[in-house]
Design goal:
By secondary structure, the chain is an all-alpha fold. Helix content is about 40%, strand content about 0%. It is flat, with a radius of gyration of 30 Å. The N terminus and C terminus are likely disordered.
């Protein structure tokens, strides 16, 4: 216990504290605060800010924001997931918490195939230690970040698969980790392939695509036939047949 008498701050004093107020700032306000009292005061400050928070710059009251609900644990956006929720993210790697290997790696536990941890997971003591590490790092609140097509902005586009070689051929390097809807991907392919074939009509000896050049040489197809195959709905379809 502190040997000094502590005078609790009023609500007005709590709200008047600067935005970057931390334990050091609070300590300078009252040197008598011990660690437990300082932690409690920080909690009071945070609670007041959350309860009364209004984004004055935009005029949006937090209570008016539509909040999504986690389908697995029922947490509302801004809240922490319940333990074991399959939607919770790991604060260390950013991936799904219940499936990432951070707990084993950071605790120095062998979880290779055949090990005890591989078959049984963490012990009770190890789980408690891991929980403390998560809290210290900072649990990740539930917020919905919808999948969007990086080209047209469509929300939650259907997933589809293409060979890696094809993806690398048509999608530039800095966009390969982004999401595309199937329609946009098809348009990108059509645009690139049509230009490649159109280049043949401009006196170019190469389309810029080695595989296509090779197939043209082997098949003896006319440029018009290739255009018809690649872009059957193009306005240029009948121009070169």
């Amino acid at each position: 216990m502190s040997k000094y008498k502590i005078t609790p701050l009023t609500k007005e004093q709590l709200l008047a504290l600067p935005d970057d107020c931390d334990s050091h700032t609070i300590g300078s306000l009252d040197q008598a605060l011990d660690s437990m009292q300082r932690a409690r005061l920080e909690q009071m400050i945070e609670a007041e800010r959350i309860a009364n928070y209004v984004d004055h710059s935009k005029g949006i009251d937090v209570s008016s924001i539509k909040r999504n609900t986690c389908h697995d644990c029922g947490a509302s956006e801004g809240e922490f997931h319940k333990p074991g929720c399959d939607m919770e993210r790991c604060p260390f790697c950013g991936h799904q918490l219940i499936s990432c290997s951070c707990c084993y790696e950071l605790l120095g536990i062998d979880h290779s195939e055949g090990s005890w941890a591989y078959s049984n997971g963490l012990t009770v003591a190890q789980q408690e230690q891991w929980d403390e590490m998560l809290k210290k790092k900072g649990l990740v609140p539930y917020i919905v970040y919808p999948n969007t097509c990086c080209r047209c902005g469509e929300l939650w586009p259907d997933m589809f698969m293409v060979p890696s070689s094809e993806w690398k051929k048509y999608i530039q390097k800095d966009a390969r980790k982004e999401m595309l809807c199937k329609k946009c991907y098809g348009e990108i392919k059509l645009l690139i392939d049509t230009y490649a074939v159109d280049s043949l009509f401009k006196g170019h000896t190469s389309t810029g695509f080695p595989n296509l050049d090779s197939k043209l040489n082997e098949s003896g197809q006319s440029p018009g036939e290739v255009v018809t195959f690649l872009a059957p709905n193009s306005k240029r379809r009948n121009e070169h047949i």
